[in-house]
Design a protein that fits this description.
The complex is a heterodimer of chains A (about 325) and B (about 240). By secondary structure, chain A is α/β, with parallel strands linked by helices. Chain A is built from eight helices and ten strands. The longest helix of chain A has about 30 residues. Helices cover about 30% and strands about 25% of the residues of chain B. The chains are: A alpha/beta (about 325), B alpha/beta (about 240).
C-alpha cells in the first residue's frame, strides 16, 4: 500500500525483493553470537544525499505472525510405483505440490495481514513519501550536511562528486492490534567514488512505542492522519540515527557486551530478541541482533532507576525526534 | 477349535496386544496445589533430568531414504543446531527453588547432579496421578520428601516432512514436562507438559550461522522457562 495510489502487485514484489536482497547482503554474521559491528561512515563535514525509493512511495504492510500456519502437518506419502519412471514422476509431482502449497500459504498470510491497513487507506494515499523523508532528515541527528534528492535525481543514479549517497528502502508494518508501527529500513551507503551497485548495506529496525488509545482507527486517521504521519517521521528519523548517526557510533564501540534474550513491547504484546544491548534510555533499548542489525525497541518491565514513569506518547503537534538521545546512548 | 480358527484367534490377540501397547495414555496435567509445597516440615528437592542433545528432527520423513534425504538437505542447519548452548536452562532449577521459597516452602534443596530418569525402575502401582516410574528410592538418596523434576524431551529444531519433501520451514522447538512427585506415595502433586515452537522472524535459510533460527531457539528456551515458573507466580525472565 502506498501514499498516492495502490502499488501494483509487481511493484510491491519488487520493493519487498529489494528489501530482502538488502537484508541478505547485510547479514555478514561471523558467529551465532558474534555479529560484526555496523560500519561507520559519516563524520561532521561530510556531505551526503539521501535517495528515496525510486517510485517515491512508502510501502506499508501488516505484520505477519510468523508462528501462525508455518507449515502443513507432517505426514507420510505412499508413492505409486508401477516402475522406476512412474515412481520418480510421482516424487517430482509431490515436490511441486508441496512447494506450491507453501508458497501459496505464505502469500495468503501476507494478504491476510495486510487487511489491518484497510481503515487507513485514505490516510496512506495522502502521505507524501518525499515530505515524510524530508521531515525525518531534519529530525535525525546524523553528522554532515544532508540533502534529499528528488525522485528524478534519485532515479538517474548519478552521484554528486565528493558526496556520500545513500539509497533508502523503508518498509512500514502495522501490528495486528494496530497499536504500533514497525519500520524495517534497508539502506545502501555509497562512499564518494564508490561506483558499486551494492554499496555498504545497513539494516535497522525501529519498533514504535505502543499508542494507548481506545480507538486506534481514530488515533491514526483523525486530522488527516497527523498521528500516523508523525510516527512515520519519528521512526524514519530514529532509523537514520541508528544507521548513520551517533547511535551507530556508540553501538560500534560496544562490541563486547554479553548476549542475552531481551524482552520488549511490541504493540500490546511482548516479543523477544537475542542480541547485545548496546544502548539504553528510559523508554527504549538498542540491541545488536544475531544478524548484526541494530534494533531500537520499547523497554518492557520495570523502569530503570532515575527514569520518570512511562510517559504518554507525544501528542500531535510535537516534532518527531529520535527517541534515543545521543547523550544517553553515548553514556550508557 | 479348528486350526484356521486358532490362527485367526492368535493373530487377533497379537494385533490387540500390539495396539494396546501403542495406546498408553499421556499423563494429564495436575494443577499445582500450593498447600502441598508449603506444608510444614516438607523438604523439597529440585532437579533437572538429564538434558537431551540439542538436535533437529524431521517428523514425517518416515522411510529410511526419506530421512537420509531430509538429513542431507538440512545438514548445514543440523550442524549449527548441535552447537547451540542450553543457555539459561541450566539455571532453571535454581530459579524454581527460589520461586518455591517465595511460595512458602520451608526447605528447598537444589540437586546439582542431573537425574537420569531412564535409570529409575517402573512403578508397581498405576493410576491417573501416579508416576509410571518409581521415584520413592530417591527419598533416602536425596533426603527430601518431594521432588520437583524438570524434564526436557526435545530441544533444537523441527522441520515437518511428507516423505521426501518439507511441508514447513524449520522451527525452534522445546518439549518437556515439569512435575513434583511425592516420594512417599509416588503421586504427582503437580504435572505440567510444556511445548513451545517458534519460527524465525523473516528469512530462515541463512547459513552458516542461521541467526533467525538461533534467535527463535533462544526464544523458545525463554518461553519454556516462563511456562515452568508461571505456576509458582514467577514470570521474570532473568534477563530483561
Amino acid at each position: 500500500m502506498n501514499a498516492k495510489q495502490p502499488l501494483p502487485r509487481r511493484a510491491v514484489r519488487r520493493r519487498v525483493a529489494a528489501l530482502l536482497a538488502a537484508l541478505a547482503l547485510a547479514a555478514p554474521v561471523a558467529g551465532a553470537e558474534t555479529p560484526e559491528a555496523t560500519p561507520r561512515f559519516l563524520a561532521d563535514g561530510d556531505a551526503w544525499e539521501l535517495r528515496p525509493p525510486r517510485d517515491d512511495k512508502l510501502l506499508f504492510q501488516g505484520v505477519v505472525n510468523s508462528d501462525d500456519g508455518t507449515g502443513r502437518s507432517a505426514n507420510g506419502m505412499m508413492y505409486p510405483a508401477p516402475n522406476l519412471v512412474g515412481f520418480l514422476a510421482s516424487v517430482v509431482v509431490h515436490g511441486l505440490i508441496e512447494s506450491g502449497a507453501q508458497q501459496s500459504q505464505r502469500s495468503s498470510q501476507q494478504r491476510q495481514a495486510d487487511r489491518v491497513l484497510a481503515p487507513y487507506q485514505p490516510v496512506l494515499e495522502g502521505l507524501s513519501a518525499k515530505a515524510v523523508m524530508a521531515e525525518a532528515l531534519e529530525a535525525a541527528r546524523v553528522p554532515g550536511t544532508s540533502r534529499l534528492l528528488g525522485s528524478e535525481a534519485a532515479s538517474s543514479g548519478a552521484a554528486t562528486p565528493g558526496t556520500w549517497w545513500i539509497e533508502s528502502q523503508p518498509v512500514f508494518s502495522m501490528t495486528q492490534d494496530q497499536t504500533a508501527i514497525v519500520l524495517d529500513h534497508a539502506l545502501q551507503v555509497h562512499a564518494p567514488g564508490d561506483a558499486s551497485a551494492e554499496g555498504t548495506p545497513v539494516v535497522v529496525r525501529v519498533v514504535s512505542l505502543p499508542q494507548p488509545s481506545s480507538s486506534m482507527p481514530a488515533h491514526w486517521s483523525d486530522h488527516q492522519g497527523e498521528n500516523l504521519r508523525r510516527e512515520t517521521v519519528r521512526l524514519l528519523a530514529e532509523s537514520l540515527d541508528l544507521a548513520l548517526g551517533s547511535a551507530a557510533v556508540a553501538a560500534a564501540q560496544r562490541g563486547a557486551e554479553p548476549h542475552k534474550t531481551v524482552r520488549y513491547t511490541f504493540g500490546s504484546a511482548e516479543k523477544m530478541e537475542r542480541g547485545q544491548v548496546v544502548a539504553e534510555s528510559c523508554e527504549r533499548i538498542v540491541i545488536r541482533t544475531l544478524r548484526g542489525w541494530l534494533m531500537s525497541v520499547p523497554r518492557r518491565g520495570a523502569v530503570p532507576a532515575g527514569c520518570p514513569a512511562p510517559a504518554l506518547p507525544a501528542p500531535a503537534g510535537v516534532e518527531g525526534v529520535p527517541v534515543v538521545p545521543p547523550s544517553v546512548v553515548a553514556g550508557s | 477349535m479348528t486350526r484356521p480358527s486358532r490362527i485367526k484367534t492368535a493373530l487377533a490377540l497379537f494385533a490387540a496386544v500390539l495396539l494396546s501397547a501403542c495406546a498408553t495414555a499421556p499423563q494429564v496435567p495436575v494443577p499445582l496445589d500450593v498447600q502441598n509445597v508449603s506444608a510444614k516440615g516438607a523438604r523439597i528437592g529440585v532437579v533437572m533430568a538429564t538434558l537431551p542433545a540439542v538436535d533437529i528432527a524431521y517428523p514425517g520423513a518416515n522411510c529410511l531414504l526419506c530421512l537420509a534425504a531430509a538429513s542431507a538437505a538440512n545438514s548445514g542447519l543440523a550442524a549449527h543446531t548441535r552447537t547451540l548452548p542450553y543457555d539459561t536452562l541450566t539455571e532453571l532449577a535454581a530459579d524454581l527453588a527460589e520461586a518455591l521459597r517465595k511460595k512458602g516452602a520451608a526447605e528447598v534443596v537444589v540437586i546439582s547432579d542431573p537425574l537420569k530418569l531412564t535409570d529409575l525402575p517402573s512403578a508397581s502401582a498405576s493410576g491417573p496421578s501416579l508416576a509410571r516410574q518409581d521415584f520413592t528410592p530417591l527419598k533416602a538418596k536425596y533426603g527430601v520428601d518431594k521432588l520437583l523434576v524438570v524434564q526436557v524431551t526435545q530441544l533444537g529444531m523441527v522441520r515437518t516432512y511428507s516423505a521426501y519433501f518439507p511441508t514447513s520451514v524449520p522451527r525452534a522447538v522445546f518439549q518437556g514436562n515439569g512435575f513434583i512427585v511425592d516420594l512417599t506415595s509416588n503421586r504427582y502433586d503437580w504435572y505440567l507438559p510444556v511445548s513451545r515452537h517458534k519460527s524465525a522472524d523473516g528469512k530462515w535459510d541463512e547459513p552458516p550461522r542461521f541467526p533467525g533460527l538461533s534467535n527463535a531457539y533462544f526464544q523458545v528456551i525463554e518461553l519454556a522457562r516462563e511456562s515452568y515458573l508461571r505456576p509458582f507466580g514467577d514470570t521474570s525472565s532473568g534477563d530483561q
